[in-house]
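Weekly structure sync, notes
Attendees: PL (lead), two postdocs, one rotation student
Agenda item 3: pending single-chain targets
PL asked that the sequence for the first pending target be pasted directly into the notes so everyone works from the same version. It is reproduced below exactly as submitted, 174 residues in total.
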Amino acid sequence: MAKIGLFYATDTGNTRKIAKRIKKQFAEDEVELFDMAKTTPDEMLSCESLIIGTPTLGDGELPDPLTEFLGQLEARHLEGKPIALFGLGDQVGYPTEFVDALGILHKKLKKLGAQLIGSWPVDGYEFEKSKALRDGEFVGLVLDQDNQADLTNERIEEWLEQVKPELLGIAVAG
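Predicted structure, written out during the meeting:
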């Protein structure tokens, strides 16, 4: 059983590539990848914590596999699990819908009682609106592979420093 289930939806393959990059930051047996187009929420039951990633399509939409996956999702799939989110978007091409899918995903999971972790600062991004904003921060890691791919590795590493201990169930003194 994998300790962390890394679930992702992808359209062009970018989210899959990012999911694989995130997985490489963990020990081999700590994370198992799940493509939401090829699995069901029942796979979440055997995971102790979750990372969920999504691209934002078109005018701020979820990819179809994620929409279908969320339609099957129940509170029991998420119960007692810390969940970290990441989203991909294009802040230049879609400044009024930037990473909206991440916000839609967050809202759905919150309704189901999810224990969400891993907010991310808005510093370094230029956009007009985003459904992924809560209290002045993004609800998860935000990556822009179209305009800021050079910042991706650094952002992933910094975000994982924040969420990794909780995802692995390590008590953090503080």
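Discussion points:
- The radius of gyration is 15 Å.
- The first strand starts at residue 4 and ends at 8.
Action: rotation student to compare against the earlier draft before next sync.
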